Amino acid sequence: MKFLWTVTSCAWAVHAGALRACGTCCTRLQRELGSKVSSPGQPAYNATEDSYWSLQEAGLRPGCILRPSTAQDVARAVSIIGTVDGCNFAIKGQGHAPAAGFANIDGGVTIDMTGLNSTVLNADQSVVSVGAGASWLRVYQYLDPFNVSVAGGRNGLVGVGGLTVGGGISHFSPRVGWACDNVVNFERGAVFQAFTDIVSSPDFDIYTSLVAGFLYNSTSKTWLISNSAVYTRPVLDPPVFAELAAVPSISNSSQLTSLAALADEAATPPLNWLFATATFKPSVEFMQEIFDILNSTFYSFNPEGGVVWDIAFEPLPSVMLSYAAKTGGNILGVQPEDGNSYIMLLSALWPNSASNAAVEKVSRQALAAIEARAKAEGLLRGFQYLNYAAPYQTPLASYGAENLEFLREVRRKYDPLQVFQKRVPGGFKL
C-alpha cells in the first residue's frame, strides 16, 4: 500500500527515471519518519501547498512533503535523499520566494521547515535562538515583552531561514548591518555540550577515544564539524556517544573494524603546516567562546591560495593520568587530582609558502586571545602537550619547575658537553 501511494504521488515526475527515484525516496523517508511524510490529498500535504505566497510555487506538486519537527529529522532526511540517485528536493521556510522551484518541486521531495519554529532568549537577553522555519513575526512577538528586538525581515510573514541565507535587509540594517551579520552561530552548541558531558564525567568511560574537530576554509568561509568517536570494545553504538550521535549530521560511518584498518589513512598531500596547543578545564560556555574567537580572527584572513584551519579537542581525563603512578611516574606534570581536562590542537595547512609568516602570525593571535580569556575565567591549565606545541611555546616548562629541573639534571649527567643541546638545532631545549 505504501508503494502504491508513493508511485501515484510521484506521477508528476517528468520521466521514468525521476518517477522511480521519487518513489524510492518517498518510501524510504516514510519508513524512517512515518507520519511526518505526507502524500497528495492528505491534510498535511495540502496545508503546505496552500501556504505558498505565489501561485507559481503553489502550482508545483512534489511527490511527497516532509514536515520535520527536529533538526535530527532534517539530517536523517538529507542522508536518505543523498543515497537515492535522481531524487531531487526543495526546502521551504515561509514560502515567500516567488519563482517556481525555489521552495517547492515537481515530483521530488519538499521539506517544509515551518515545524522548526522555536524561539528562546538567553538569560542576559543578548542572544535569541530561533528555529530556521519560524516567521519573523513570531520572533518579534516573542521578543516584544522583553523590550528587545533583532535584525530580521521587515515583512513579518517572511521566514527566518530564507531571509538570513540571502543576507537579509532589516529596519535595523543601517545600525547593525545585514541580518546574516548578526548571527552568532548556526547550532554548534549541541556538539560542545555532548563533548563536555563526555569529558567532564567523573566516571569517564575508559574505552572512549574522542576527537571533536572543527575545520574552517578561508576561501569558502565555511565551517565543518567532524567527530572521530572511537570505542575500544566491539560495541557499535555505545551509550557514551549517544548524545553526540543525536546531533544532526550529514553522514555517520560507524562500524566495527580493526585498528589496523582504522589507522590506514590516506597520506596528506604536501602542504605547509603548523601546530599550537593549550589545555583547558571543561566548559560548554568556554568552548563557544573559543569558537567565537577563532571565527572572528579567521573570517577576514584569506591569504593567496587559501588556508584551512583545523581545531581539534581531545579529552584528558584524570583516569588516564592515574596510570603513571602504577609504572613509576612520568615527568609530564599532570596529576589525577587536577581533574578532567581537554587538549586543544590548533593547526593550519596551506599551499602557498609565501603566506607562512602571515598564517603563523594569525595563529599566534588566535591562541593568545583564547589563552587570555581562559586565564581570566580560571579555565587555563598549564600543560602544553609537546607533540602539538608550536616552536614558540614552552612545553617542557609546562611540566612544572621540579620536573624541569629533574630533566636538566639528567641532561647534565648524560650530556655534559651539551651535544644534543647545541648540535641538534630542532626541537625543544632544556
From TrEMBL:
> Which residues does the UniProt record annotate as the domain FAD-binding PCMH-type?
58-235
Keyword vocabulary terms for this entry: FAD, Flavoprotein, Oxidoreductase, Signal
Per the record, the domain of life is Eukaryota
- Presence of the UniProt keyword Flavoprotein in the record: yes
Q: Name the SUPFAM superfamilies for this protein.
A: FAD-binding/transporter-associated domain-like
What PROSITE patterns does the entry give? Answer: FAD_PCMH (PS51387)
The answer to whether the entry has keyword Signal is yes
Where in the sequence is the signal peptide annotated? 1-16
What is an example of a GO molecular function annotated in this UniProt entry? FAD binding
Q: Which family does it belong to?
A: Belongs to the oxygen-dependent FAD-linked oxidoreductase family.
UniProt-listed PANTHER family: BINDING OXIDOREDUCTASE, PUTATIVE (AFU_ORTHOLOGUE AFUA_1G17690)-RELATED (PTHR42973), FAD-BINDING PCMH-TYPE DOMAIN-CONTAINING PROTEIN-RELATED (PTHR42973:SF22)
Instruction: Tell me what this protein is called.
Output: FAD-binding PCMH-type domain-containing protein
- Species: Thermothielavioides terrestris (strain ATCC 38088 / NRRL 8126) (Thielavia terrestris)
Please spell out the taxonomic lineage of the organism that makes this protein.
Eukaryota, Fungi, Dikarya, Ascomycota, Pezizomycotina
